[in-house]
Amino acid sequence: MKKDIILAGVGGQGILSIAATIGTAALSTGLFLKQAEVHGMSQRGGDVQSNLRISDREIASDLIPQGKADMIISVEPMESLRYLPMLSPEGWLVTNTKPYINIRNYPEMDKLMAEIEAQPRHIALDADEIARQMGSPKSANMVILGAASPFLDIEYASLQDAIRSLFRKKGEDVIQVNLDALEAGRGFTTDKLNNRA
Amino acid sequence: MQKLLLLGDEAIAQGAIDAGLSGIYAYPGTPSTEITEYVMHSKEAKSGKVVASWGANEKTAMEAALGMSYAGKRAMVCMKHVGLNVAADAFVNSAITGANGGLIVVAADDPSMHSSQNEQDSRFYGKFALIPILEPGNQQEAYDMVHYGFDLSEKNGIPVMLRITTRLAHSRSGVALKESRTQNEIRLPENLRQFILLPANARRQYKHLLTNQAAFISASETSPFNKLTDHKDKSIGIIACGLAYNYLVENFAGHEVPHPVLRIGQYPLPEKMVRDLYDSCDSLLVLEDGYPIAEELIRGFMNNGKPVKGRLDGTVPRDGELNPNIVARALGLADTRGRDIPAIVSSRPPSLCKGCPHIYSYNALNEALASLSKGRVFSDIGCYTLGALEPFDAINSCVDMGASITMAKGAADAGLVPAVAVIGDSTFTHSGMTGLLDAVISKSPITVMILDNATTAMTGGQNSAAVGKIEDICLAIGVEKEHIRILNPLQKHHEENLRIMMEEIAYPGVSVVIPRRECIQTAARRLREEKKKQETSKAQA
Q1: Chain A CB within 8 Å of residue B250 CB
Q2: Residue B444, in any domain of the structure
Q3: What is the mean pLDDT of residues B132-141?
Q4: Do B217 and B232 have their domain in common?
Q5: Minimum mean pLDDT among A35-49, A88-102, B231-245, B283-297: which range?
Q6: pLDDT at B541
Q7: Which residues from A are below 8 Å from B34, CB to CB?
Q8: What does the pLDDT average to over B25-49?
Q9: Which of A80, B89, B248, B479 is most buried by its number of CB atoms within 10 A?
């Protein structure tokens, strides 16, 4: 088993909470892991990414080879496209559609969505809206992770356990909200896959 | 055994704690900052009374570490690559004095300049100082090399450099820990003149260092971190330093590399191993992150041996960080790069946070200078360097820590009057104070804006040595009291701030303007922590 994942977003959006959840789940099942992060200047509202590699064998490189990533998980639509050179021809693009606009020349939304729709394997959802409707706007990242979960090759229960362990200090309510967000994202993807089939 | 998931930086810190560290000194700098922060937050380090402190700059940190080594205890000093330029005087001379307690100098290089002004290779500094260098290839080695490095340092009485790059510093992986060992007791050098670099002593010490070179090379020949692996296809032999080895292995995922490979993790280069590889292969390929230091050594000036490929002949790009695809191309393997980035994707540079005090300082400064020709603002290194970007376009230089004040002085000497320097509080106490003294002595017509957000913000909000001291420092240096002005950088004070800036810019001597408001990131963190404390004390009551 090997999953190479690019996590993408804008500095401050908290992509590392997704990485931490996948990482905790992977380690609990005895997998190897490497995770290259971006620290420093780019964290101030710039584009950020993390290379997350999981495998049942020892991993050599901290960086995923270009064109070999199994998945791009992005919490921002334009950022999801920045890493296409990394994605394998069979890879999945899972992205939030809620734009984070902090630059003047942000592309027009319909053109942006057309590029995303043009990707052969993609899941695009407004995770912010789904999280808001659930009354927990802060858990949009867990909605995105849920939407990516069917492609992860990690037991869903392990992801749930990881959320329980990471949010333990914050109390039962916070744990449940995040579990629900994960479930909602997963539901979106399974619906889409079922409709396609 | 349970492995800990650690950043390369954190692995070094945990390695140091477990290897009997007594003191760690540093000035924050990406990608080295997390090493010292980890020790500061470690309960083990606290219970062992390990000293962990930020110095005013890398030079003071290096000297404090050398002092602890003099006293016989194990010390580590951490800095980013350009920080080593600041510490260079102490660093190079520490090789002449030698170490007493184990001394490790961590230099964190930043190839591809993710957060830096250049991509200089610290291995040149190690070679220049004639000391051993360790270069880990993964997080486990980063951990193991600290223990090994302290032993190497104490056995040979020499500081050891641990050279890492951004990729390892900021990448996580599982690390298995060793049993921890106790710290050293105080034990001064047997010869109390060892650290006195008067010429007569220094000559003796230098000869001793030169004599030791053979021992350093021989340590490299037998090092567990240098390994020559033979393979069938001898059309090319590969030398892979540090992380480069991983990118090489990645390209043969699951299979052995078909060529002989010399993996390097310890310098000086093991001459015999390099010779053995060279003799057995038709050509060599050198893969190293940073400058082509190994490649230059092997190729030599005459370059009349077998072909040596690498960064110098264009087989590998001359600049920038390595990655698996660059190595694939160097080996003639297929490049797997995926689809191109669609043209509609715009670049998204970092920017000042919403509500950042610097925004209001730059808005006022731009307006204060609007009637003058452009190109007279010299800036420095910190978040405020983002004033170079839109919408501010407010600064004209960023060179090295403290250069804003002295460059403004030089430009004013040349006739560019008024000239303005923009520097942060922490950068001011790092390397700005001496330059301000120069300007005061010359009565230079410059205005120095010290943007005081009470923290070292860019690296994540470490304590700033300047807090509460800036006016006193400026007064003591000789800036006139009536030309030290404090502002509150908020929109509602804009007119007043503008007036004060214009008054001081018009003053034909040294003036200091201090826009002062806490960094909004550290302020938010402080409020969160205070709230948490209140809640805990409420719960306890």
Answers
A1: yes
A2: yes
A3: 98
A4: no
A5: A35-49
A6: 66
A7: 39
A8: 97
A9: A80
| Closest Cβ opposite residue B31 in set A40, A69, A112 | A40
Per-window interface: B 18-77 vs A, CB < 8 A: 30-31, 33-34
B12 and B149 share one domain: yes
Q: How far apart are the first and last CA of chain A?
A: 25
Report the CATH number at residue B127.
3.40.50.970
**Which residues in A lie closer than 8 A to residue B460 (C-beta atoms)?**
39
pLDDT given for residue B299 in this prediction: 92
Note the pLDDT of residue A39. 77
Q: Tell whether B212 and B264 lie within a shared domain.
A: no
Nearest CA in chain B to A33: B173
Pairwise CA distance, residues B430 & A8, whole Å: 35
Q: Which residue of B has its CA nearest to A39?
A: B170
Chain B residues with CB under 8 Å of A82 CB are 341, 345
Q: Which residues of A touch B328 (CB under 8 A)?
A: 65
Task: Delimit the domains of chain A by residue range.
Answer: 2-196
What's the pLDDT band for A178 if we cut at 50, 70, 90? Answer: very high
Q: Is residue B172 within 8 Å of B9, Cβ to Cβ?
A: no
Q: Which of A61, A86, A87, A122 to mutate to test the interface with B (most CBs of B within 10 A)?
A: A61
- Do B314 and B396 belong to one domain? no
The backbone torsions φ and ψ at residue B487, rounded to the nearest 5 degrees and listed phi first, read -120, 160
- Number of structural domains, chain B? 3
B347 touches chain A (CB under 8 A): yes
Q: Which residues contact B63 (CB under 8 A, 6 or more apart)?
A: B90
Same domain, yes or no: B82 and B216: yes
Whole-angstrom Cα distance, residue B383 to residue B461? 11
Which residues of A are less than 8 Å from B338 in CB distance?
Answer: 66-67, 69, 84-89, 91
Whether residue B29 is found in the same domain as residue B166: yes
Q: Looking at residue B159, what is its pLDDT?
A: 98
**pLDDT for res B157:** 98
Q: For B283-291, what is the mean pLDDT?
A: 98
Given B174, B337, B351, which is nearest A33 (Cβ)? B174
Angle A156-A159-A165 from CA coordinates, rounded to 5° = 145
Identify from B243, B348, B453, B519 which residue to disrupt to test chain A contact, counting A C-beta atoms within 10 A and taking the largest count.
B348
The answer as to whether B414 is a domain residue is yes
- pLDDT band at B422, cuts 50/70/90? very high
φ, ψ at B240 (rounded to 5°)? -125, 115
CA distance A170 to chain B (A): 12
**DSSP assigned state of A55:** E
3 state SS of B445? coil
Taking the mean position of all CA atoms in its chain, how far away is CA A6? Answer: 8
d(CA B140, CA B82): 26
Chain A residue at shortest CA distance from B347: A47
pLDDT at B1 over 60: no
Mean pLDDT of B322-335: 96
- pLDDT per position as a tens digit, A84-135: 999 999 999 999 999 999 999 999 999 999 999 999 999 999 999 999 999 9
And the tokens for B160?
């050891």
Domain hosting B510: range is 357-523
Same-domain status, B368 and B499: yes
Q: Across chain B, how many H-helices and E-strands are there?
A: 20, 19
The arithmetic mean of pLDDT across residues B463-480, rounded, is: 97
Q: Hey, are the CB atoms on A65 and B5 less than 8 Å from each other?
A: no
Is residue B341 included in any domain, yes or no? no
Q: Are residues B168 and B260 in the same domain?
A: no
CB contact under 8 A, A46 and B349: yes
Task: Classify A2-196 by CATH class.
Answer: alpha beta
Is the CB of residue B454 less than 8 Å from the CB of residue B518?
yes
pTM over the 0.90 mark: yes
The complex's ipTM?
A: 0.93
Q: Is B325 on the interface with A (CB under 8 A)?
A: yes
